Amino acid sequence: xxxxxxxxxYLYLLIYILLSxxxxxxxxxxxxPKYFNFPLPITLTMIHMGFSGLxxxxxxxxxxxxxxxxxxxxxxxxxxIPISAFFASSLWFGNTAYLHISVAFIQMLxxxxxxxxxxxxxxxxxxxxxxxxxxxMVLVSVGVVISSYGEIHFNVVxxxxxxxxxxxxALRLVLTQVLLQKKGLTLNPITSLYYIAPxxxxxxxxxxxxxxxxxxxxxxxxxxxxxxxxxxxxxxALNFSIFLVIGRTGAVTIRVAGVLKDWILIALSTVIxxxxxxTGLNIIGYAIALCGVVMYNYIxxxxxxxxxxxxxxxxxxxxxxxxxxxxxxxxxxxxxxGASSGGTGSASDTNVDEEAPLIPSARLSYIGRTQLGNHAA
Length: 377
Hints:
Blueprint: H1 4-31, H2 41-62, H3 73-96, H4 103-109, H5 113-123, H6 131-149, H7 156-180, H8 189-218, H9 225-248, H10 251-272, H11 280-308, H12 314-328
Helix pairs in contact: 1-9, 1-10, 2-8, 2-9, 3-7, 3-8, 4-10, 5-7, 6-11
């Protein structure tokens, strides 16, 4: 007999992998001068933000799918604005990297996300330096360095853009914990779009006006409505697909799916974009980096179980293990008043799809510290 819930779960995972890979490859195709030739990453990001904000407005204000949270001016100024600023920065720098380096190499560089987030968390006091975690971070960094050394088309500018975007996203993760969660504000995917997307659009307007508007006035830039509409629609669908996945699986499951997606994406990028060449040193370095990430995940899972499973009986341990896996997915559904519920997040957790970062990042944690806790446009 077919297990329908299990089939549905794997279907959601497949949709997530396809959408995530598709958004990245689509963005590369649109931005690359060799293909669609729309080399304006800030403009593309603003299109995504505007579209996402508009859809969220209709869902919240017109169709009333969810209710807006109680947002005061003080809360908006001290929480939403800083988070939106770093969110816009991460998208800007990350998308600009597509102009200079290959999709495969970008995915390899993204292995640095746990390192960047851990450093930012320690600097902001939300995590403590630990020898075992530090050694894992060194392993990840060494793997990325080896992979970079083996990159045939290594570009300093593109690498700097991508790494800067990673650190901007890491700081956003930390701010999400420090600012939003400590104030008791929880946002589901729709309300996140509703509040953050318009603010990010405003932040992107300044660099767009200074850097890309003059270029648009003097050059012939092609604009195809259906290309940009479908591109923005795919990115929006990715946000909601991740929400569906974490609602049906544990955090460890989606992390494994993310690693599988990265390998598939690296392979697909070399087929779709022939100029992308992967060397043996690329693969060796990325494999070393992934080993560090896997070991880091293991440490975090062990920390959670050690802190939440005292001397209990075997049956109680099994029950708590099951509850812990469900809680680690941090499911949060709007209640009658439109508020969200969910566990406390940790900024040191990095199970966030960089292509769909509008979903509250700490809500997509794979398991963090001693508690639970990237539509690249």
